[in-house]
Every structure is written in structure tokens, then in C-alpha cells.
Amino acid sequence: MKFKKKQQTKIYLKYNLTLLLTIVLPLSFIGFLNFIVDPYGVFNTPIIYKLNYIKPELDKHQRLVKSADIINYKPKKVLLGSSTVLNGLNPRKIDIFFRDRDLAYNLGISSINMKETRLYFDHLLLNQPKLNTVILGLNFFMFNNNKNNNLLIKDNVILKKNGYLNLII
User: Fold this and answer.
1) Number of folded domains that form the chain
2) Residues 33 and 108 both lie in one domain
3) Which residues lie closer than 8 Å to 64 by C-beta, 6 or more apart?
4) Hey, what long-range contacts does 39-44 have (CB within 8 A, 24 or more apart)?
5) I want to staple 166 with a disulfide (CB 3.0 to 4.6 A). Which of 77, 145, 150, 160 is the partner?
6) Confidence class of residue 27 from pLDDT cuts 50, 70 and 90?
């Protein structure tokens, strides 16, 4: 009877160990690889040239990534606007006009409307109380009422302070 119980315990132990290894190890490896590659630039892992230097997913999720960047970088000067600001204004060229040498952050987002612009401005003020300068780039498309609202983040989510999970939910 004791022999059968020990044998049964070994079978359960072997099964549990196999199950654990087939689930936990691959998930841990995927999580570690995701942390190293950092496709959205949220973890601030060191840049390795051929591994995680180019991040093509950043353009697809600009609203989420730029919200997290505001929390991470805490810029004192910001260029805020639509794709005109994103593609047309270089933060390094703008810094020539200011005496301090803090680098400006380009918060240009494609297809942004005025409601989103206001939300990002409020997000900036909430997460960077030492904000000095905001250069706001406006164009006619930002005021288009017939355009679909591109809000990917709810109003109450973007205004949370210092919370990555709040930005993702």
C-alpha cells in the first residue's frame, strides 16, 4: 500500500513539474524577450543597435506611447499639435530660441483633434508641474467636427498621474 502511494506521489510530482515547465518557462522567456526588445519604449531598456533600436510599433500607438513618455521624461518644453508638428518641427531647432538648454519634446500626434489636444495639455500639467513652454501647432483639420473622434484613451484614464496600468486599461 505504501509503495503504491509513493509511486502515485511521484507521478503527480512529475506531472506538476512538467506542467509547470511547459507553461512557466515559455511565458517567462516571452516576458523577458518583450522586456528586452521593449516594442513601445515603456520600460526604458538600454538601446542595443540590431536588437531594439528600431521600434515600428511606436507609430501605430502614438497616443499611448506619448502619454507614457510624458510621465517618463517630464519635459519642460513641449511642441503640441497634429502631424504637422510631428513631421515639421524639429525640437533641436526650436531650442536655439531659448536660453535654457532643456531639450523640447515633440508631442505631435497624427489626426489629433482639439479635445485630445486639451487632454494631452491637461496630462502635461498634471505630470509635469515645472512645464515652462508649450508651442501649440494648430491647423484647420483639428477643428473639424465631422471627423471621427480618434480618442483611444478615455478622458479619465489619460489624466491619471504616474500610472502605467491606468494608461493601458
Assistant:
1) 2
2) no
3) 40, 152, 153, 167, 168
4) 40/64, 40/65, 40/68, 41/65, 41/68, 41/69, 42/68, 42/72, 42/164, 44/72
5) 160
6) very high
